[in-house]
Design a protein that fits this description.
The chain is mainly beta. Helices cover 4% and strands 44% of the residues. The protein contains one helix and eleven strands, in the order βββββββββββα. The chain has a six-stranded antiparallel β-sheet with strand order 1-2-3-10-5-8, with no helix packed on it. It has a three-stranded antiparallel β-sheet with strand order 7-6-9, with no helix packed on it.
């Protein structure tokens, strides 16, 4: 049974958080079945190589330009309106190659949770985050 009720979530009610992943994230919406978050990557920055266990992720590029690296594909330039489909377990990262912020939406099914996230850079060098 679907318990979804109509609602409007105002953007100004949300708080963006800087992450160790080298980008800023704000979750716009989340339910058990899906999450929608906006990511912002500053010019010259590349996000952490990672994959999601059991979660499909779709990037919808909202503004800026970048180069996305997805396991099994050649690295590709992306711009506003482009969509990147990333199946569960597939390595991914994105670099901002422009002068302005790269902004994209991450649509995850089922919903993103921290336990599905795997930082491949930390896994290759497990002592990098130690004090």
């Amino acid at each position: 049974m679907n318990n979804l009720k109509p609602k409007i979530i105002k953007a100004n009610s949300l708080t963006e958080k800087q992450t160790y992943e080298r980008c800023a994230i704000v979750e716009n919406y989340g339910s058990e079945d899906v999450s929608v978050a906006r990511a912002r990557v500053k010019s010259g920055v590349t996000t952490v190589a990672h994959h999601l266990s059991g979660v499909e992720e779709i990037y919808l590029i909202a503004s800026g330009q970048g180069k996305v690296t997805v396991e099994g594909l050649e690295p590709a330039d992306v711009v506003e309106g482009d969509v990147v489909v990333i199946p569960p377990g597939i390595s991914q990262r994105i670099a901002n190659t422009g002068k302005n912020d790269l902004v994209f939406y991450c649509i995850c099914t089922p919903r993103f949770t921290p336990k599905c996230y795997h930082d491949e850079e930390a896994e290759k060098n497990p002592h990098q985050n130690l004090p």
